[in-house]
Amino acid sequence: GDSVTQMEGPVTLSEEAFLTINCTYTATGYPSLFWYVQYPGEGLQLLLKATKADDKGSNKGFEATYRKETTSFHLEKGSVQVSDSAVYFCALSEAGTASKLTFGTGTRLQVTL
Amino acid sequence: DTGVSQNPRHKITKRGQNVTFRCDPISEHNRLYWYRQTLGQGPEFLTYFQNEAQLEKSRLLSDRFSAERPKGSFSTLEIQRTEQGDSAMYLCASSPVQNRGHWNTEAFFGQGTRLTVV
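Above: the input entities. Below: the C-alpha cells describing the complete assembly.
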C-alpha cells in the first residue's frame, strides 16, 4: 500500500537558519503530495501541495518540489522564524481523486532565538 | 467560526464504556473524513463519507467502531466497549469533491477530540 517516510525529529534550529525536512513516498501511479503543519494547540493546516511531477508547491516561504525520479517531496525554507515551530506532516493522496490522505509520522521543528 | 468543529474536545472514559464524538464539517463540503492520531504518529485514515454514503472503511475500524452521517451534514463516530488502546486523538476533516474542476482539493481539519480510556 501507499506509504510516506519522513525524517525523524525533533529538528532544532536557530532563527534564520536553513530548513530541510526530508520526505519520500511509495505509491502506485502519480499521487498528489502535501505538507500539513500543526501549530501547538491547533488543528492540521495545509501548508502546500503539488499534484504532478516537477511541480513546486510554495507558501509562507516554504517550498517543496515533486520529484518523481526520487519519489521525494522535501520541505525547505531559507530562513526559519520562531513562529515556524510546529509539527510538519508529509502526506499523499491517490491521483485523480479527492480521496483519503496517507501521512508520515511528522517532524517536530523547534526554532530558537 | 466556519471551520470544522469537533465535540467534545476532550473525553475521559472508563474501559468498557461507549463514547460518541461529533463532527460538524464546513458547510457544503461533500466529503467528511475521520482519522485517528496516536502520540508521535501521523493521522491514520479510518473512514470517509461522500454526502450520507460511507464510501470506505479502513481495516483499523473494528466492529466496535461505527460512523454515521445521516443527513449528509454532521457526522458521529461511536466506539463501543472502549479499550485502553483506543486512547488517541480523533480527527475529522472535510473537503469539497472538486474545486473549480480540480481534484485533490484541500482537506480542512478540526482540532480533534482527545480520548483517554482509563
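Note for the figure: The longest strand of chain B covers residues 88-95.
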